[in-house]
Amino acid sequence: xxxxxxxxxxxxxxxxxxxxxxxxxxxxxxxxxxxxxxxxxxxxxxxxxxxxxxxxxxxxxxxxxxxxxxxxxxxxxxxxxxxxxxxxxxxxxxxxxxxxxxxxxxxxxxxxxxxxxxxxxxxxxxxxxxxxxxxxxxxxxxxxxxxxxxxxxxxxxxxxxxxxxxxxxxxxxxxxxxxxxxxxxxxxxxxxxxxxxxxxxxxxxxxxxxxxxxxxxxxxxxxxxxxxxxxxxxxxxxxxxxxxxxxxxxxxxxxxxxxxxxxxxxxxxxxxxxxxxxxxxxxxxxxxxxxxxxxxxxxxxxxxxxxxxxxxxxxxxxxxxxxxxxx
Length: 327
Description:
The chain is an alpha/beta fold.
């Protein structure tokens, strides 16, 4: 098992960041509960709507709006595991998430690359996925591997399966991957089960986790719901990774953005826990700001760091393992 550093351990005095007090976190929490109960989330998946309805949420099947009472949110937070073991093919690369443990992972989804040999700026390929995955596998600083690039030489309809095959064959660390729907999830699950030695062994030691992204503001689209549901049933960790943009798809204030973000992530966690109580989840974030001048979402902005420091504090407040963007 990999040894991981811990954040917030007071070994020496020095610089620290505490963006929100406990009272402010509580205010964000209560505002979140109010939005979820009285405004709700739009849920596209019919199966997800039925799960919410059977679980006690107020569901309008015509508008597809789900209003989640406070007790369901609180129950989901309590039932979600506070600690996760993310297994690698090699057990020495297992990592534990929870509390103040801190690990690191590469960024992902690049569609272009500067060729390391020719220096040509070109589109990414399947071979790049393999090469960068091996590079991340060799780096002690990387505790897990996220699909590093999105290969442009594979048809989008089969890209997820090709990505999974390449990554599983080139790392002994835990893998994070976006599977883009329930159908692809089942294919990747079978592949990972073959690597692990069967679905039972995969459930005991999940070799991969899935990332899903709610659509800000306050919506979970069909393919994201499918992955949440199938992941919960299979015991595969699902990272609820909101990607709001302050000033565009969420409030201009950082606290307001955190409320929207919190609604989306907790709503997804409720769906997971209603599907299978105790299902493994991560409280995720790649939320940032909207650059009003250039109309972009800058992941290197100071505000991204501030937002994600707040997200990490919220995850600790809920005693949930978290994943946040570092810029």
